[in-house]
Amino acid sequence: MRIAVIGAGPAGLTCAKQALERGHQAVVYERTADVGGIWNPASAGAYASVRMQSSRMSFPYSDHPPAFAADFPTLAEVHGYLRSYAGEFGVLPVTRFGAEVRSVVKRDGRWQVTARSGAGQATEAFDAVMVASGELWEPRMPEHLPPTAAGVQVITAKDYRSPEPFAGRRVLVVGGGVSGADIAAELAAGGATVEWSVRHRALFLPRTVGGAYNDALFSYIGRVAMEELPYRDFLARLEELEPRYFAMYRESGLLPTTGFHGAVHVNDRIVPAVHRGDVRVRPAFERFEPQGSVVFADGLRARYDTVVLCLGYGLPDYSFLPGLVREELYEHFFPLADPTLAIVNTPVDTEAFGTACPYFEAIAGWALRVFEGTVALPEPAERARWCAEHMGRLGDRRYYDCWLETVRIGLLSGTVADPAVDFAGFWRTVSAQVGPAGLRPGGPAQDAAVQDGLFDLAELRLRLLAGLGEPVLAGLVAAGSVSTGDARRARQVPAGRAIAPWLPYRQRGHAPVAARPAGTAAAADPVGVGTVGLGTVGLGTAEVAR
């Protein structure tokens, strides 16, 4: 096939690389002069001091280890890594830099891609299109901004570059997420007087916890078990690992003592900055007044020289796809009308944790196999039902565990060992650190996750076996892949304790989706995240709930 890839960031690069290695022709359209997306320093997509939240252990592609030594790479290091990946796998020669896609429409059975560049505008035909334009380009904004005459500078996280221009100024940073925390702490260290408006207290953890990378604490199955812990027990364990940090956290008043511990914000600076008094916490931002003052949720008003809005990002600009209906994207990726187009971006209506190169690898691999016909999506009616249930509330910020989604999508595409055929290989993957190379069937064994000792892994293994359902379990015993003793113990797992192989995870205020016996009808999804087809990986189920 001839495949167009729109965007040369982390997602677009792996789309092109995998398309080429699967024997397709690929053309990458990139509007800037270099690869990297927001990690291209010249793209104005990220501020200079930004560092990757995922460690060098977990963020890389599965087949391209990083050459740098940093534990958490800088903007320049990530950009260099992405450039080396593009060079290693032949993506640079098929990339058209300075080419901005203006239109993607289907005519006479092929996608017509029109792009504008220095040479003018041209249209070419493709069999499939992969849109990897990124989701962090359109900042969310409040309904009303103060007029220029009000004299207050209002910028977004996307506009922010460094703290030097703000030294000596009174600054309000709005937004309790990672960008807001990072910018507030950096501005305070740079000499600004900083207040930080937070609507909800979030759980911030440093990049290393107890001497280990934050993302090395739990395996994939350990993440599921961790979410079953009472929140107070989870906090108590973290406090044992980082007593000084949590002492500061409690004294600062920032620590959420009740809450949801699946979604963690990674930031080293904000808790110490608030504890020292360098950053003062304010209630939620409500609105700007016409004269430029800010009104907070408690009714108080204050005036600032600069307000930095870190309110997240809205829907990407898909105006070049005139036929796209956002609410009709099955699984966030495939349009109902034509699954020869795929959106390979993180869903923007989610609070994603763990987004890194392996996640984009998984989506790209799934999409290519769907294009080829080697992996089937559910029937159109089922896809429409999923969209009707899950795509009608795009303003509802749902938790999205990209590590566990990577396993689930890998099962759908066949790039993760099928537990119905190779349970030992599947268990080796999900019970180890989230090292990308371990996601490949037959890939190298990964180290154990450092905090998985909190859990009974033998019991978790039996719960996974129980989640496969009786026909699959019997087949594994017949093939000699699972012992009769393990099968007997798996059958004794209490109802509701089985863990489905797609590793369901919880949403705030909900329990994880319970595993269903193979072949049974789908129940309503209590976590509100969705169900997808898994009929092609041998598990015998009609659907997979995540």
Report on this model:
With 546 residues, the protein is an alpha/beta fold. The chain has 14 helices and 26 strands. It has helices at 10-21, 75-88, 178-189, 220-228, 231-241, 243-252, 270-276, 357-372, 380-390, 402-413, 423-430, 457-467, 470-478, 484-491, and strands at 2-6, 25-30, 95-97, 100-107, 110-117, 120-126, 128-131, 153-156, 170-174, 193-197, 204-205, 208-209, 212-213, 265-266, 279-282, 285-288, 294-296, 301-302, 306-309, 329-330, 334-335, 341-343, 350-353, 398-401, 531-532, 544-545. A hairpin with a 2-residue loop joins strand 4 (100-107) and strand 5 (110-117). Helix 1 crosses helix 8, helix 5 (231-241) crosses helix 6 (243-252) and helix 6 packs across helix 7. The chain starts with a strand and ends with a strand.
Provide a concise account of the structure shown:
This protein is an alpha/beta fold. It contains 14 helices and 26 strands.
Number of strands: 26
The outline comes out as: globular
Q: How much strand?
A: 15-25%
The spatial strand order of the largest sheet comes to 3-2-1-7-22
First CA to last CA: what distance?
31 Å
Count of discrete alpha- or pi-helical segments spanning 4 or more residues: 14
* Gyration radius from CA atoms, angstroms: 24 Å
- Enumerate the spans where pLDDT stays under 50 for 5 or more consecutive residues: 511-546
Largest sheet: 5 strands, parallel
Residue-averaged pLDDT: 89
Structural class: alpha/beta
Query: Roughly what percent helix?
Result: 25-40%
